[in-house]
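Lab notebook: predicted structure, single chain.

Context: the supervisor wants predicted structures on file for every construct in the current expression panel, including those that have not yet been purified. This is the next one on the list. No modifications to the sequence; it matches the entry in the shared construct table.
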Amino acid sequence: MADRSCCRTLPVALVVFAAIGMLLSGCGSGSASATPTTPTAYVTTGAAVANPGDKVAVVDTVTPRLQSPITTGTLPAALAVTPDGRDVLVANKGDDTISEIDVASGDVVHHATVGLEPDAVAVAPNGTLALVANFGDDTVSPVSLPSLRPGRPIAVGSQPVAVAFSPKGTLALVSNYGNGSVSPIAVPSMVAGSPVPAGAEPTAVLVTPDGTTALVTDFKTDTVTPIALATMTPGTPIAVAGNPTGIAALPTSTSAYVSGGDTVTPIELRTHRTGPPITIGTLAEGVAISPGGTTAWVSGLDGTLVHVDLRTRSVIGHVAVGGVPSAVVIADVRR
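Prediction complete. Output recorded below exactly as produced.
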């Protein structure tokens, strides 16, 4: 099992570097700014190396082209996009800060200090609140938007590594890697409820688009635990492929996609049935779904961002981003 020290984010000590696959045509260097017709992927690339970096990779997902990287803070480990797609928040685990990137300009426009070793960040559906999970001090920092003003930390479970809001924004779920639980946080009161068992080593968490269920990946047991939010009761774990670390779905999705091992596994949200895993050719960490829901972008531990066609279950190509990619989000300024 990987060490969860300040120079790591998700369990990437299991890295076995694979050969980089075919680079997509046109991969080069360009501006870091997006345009109204360019959904842009942001990738943390240095969150699992002993000599931490301070940059986020930027990829135009349409061409696709690698853009100029953005310097945010020491050891960028997690990302979240505001609901309008115009800003990206970055949790910098090495210097206990979050940074705000303006998507249109590619500039970092704000910084704020949060708790110790921030390892996850999520933005409420109304865009006025972010929650930052602080791995090093077992708290969550509420941060007002757009001011980026931190509030009083909220005590949760041991080693929080992921956070997600319900679609209405009245509830947030925090996965506590260190004690196998999920902590619910009521919004806007910012009161944490009793932790709920969620596997041995819970990593990513997703609230389904209908707001009824949380899906929590468990790195140790290769499962996803569904939690009924009305009763906060865990259900029967769903078996997935190898050591899951990421999960994603769009608000219109009927399936969620789980990254783990060298695959992405679909889970049908209504029945919790899994489809055959999609092999991506490298160890997978984070996953993000493209606007429209037909493709996904997966951060591969061979230093690439892998583009996957979810309909044909095939890899479209790779964009070399360098480092050890661990998290990815897509900002779509057309929304």
